[in-house]
Amino acid sequence: MKLTKYVVVVMLMLILAGLPLFSAGQQEGEKGADGKVTVTLGYNAFLADSFTDAPPPIDVIQEELAKKYPEISLKYYTMPSDMLSSLTIWMTSQDGTIDIYGLDTPWVTQFGRGGWAVPLNDKLPQLEENFEQAGLDTFSYEGKRLGVPFWGGLSGLFYRTDLLEKYGFRKKETLNDIVEISKKVKADHPDKMGFVWPGGRYEELVQVYATFLHAFGGKYKDSQGNYVFDSEKNIAAAQFMRTLIEEGVSPRDSG
Length: 255
Hints:
The protein is mainly alpha-helical. It is 40% helix and 8% strand. The strands form two sheets. Strands 2-1-3 form a three-stranded parallel β-sheet, covered by helices on one side. Helix 2 links the parallel strand 1 and strand 2. The radius of gyration is 23 Å and the shape is elongated. The chain starts with a helix and ends in a 9-residue tail after the last helix. The N terminus is likely disordered.
């Protein structure tokens, strides 16, 4: 399913579930001067952007909503980059600026403890039939479904096919292959960097570490649910990342 269609399905489900996710200024079912019930969606600029010739997701959402439910008007509120600060202020002051909002995964516990999101368990009883269990669990707190996954990213490995062909490399099946290729090419092209990845002290570093972690067979938790970041495989993944920098395969700025 294309991203825009996926977002449309999610938004329609949330709107028709009778949300707000937190108290709104407009009472549920109250109509405006145009006779429509207005629902405000707060999210960052991603929904208003398009990286292809396709229309932005928010345009598709509003168009589909108008076709199927003309009595509902969806207003899009573009949030600042620091969404959490704005949401925290609104929640603590019981401000009703928005009805539906984007919830980042690290905030779930905070919003769950604060009671800042209406659980969707009863409002959308068929969640498990429409979404991956892991995604629903990510946005759950103490069994309460506080949100649904509708935006995500995938890691990818991009490489110079011309250089690989020049040096006789065909398969890239392991991390060791990447190291070997990088070192051989850099020997003739010291101005080039072999393997680059985001390593700033932000969520991107965690995501990259997760890739290496699984490559080494590591896990976040053991079978008893205990975190095992100090396990042999997990430590090996972190050490490998450090070795990439120390040996010049990856730029020192990655660390």
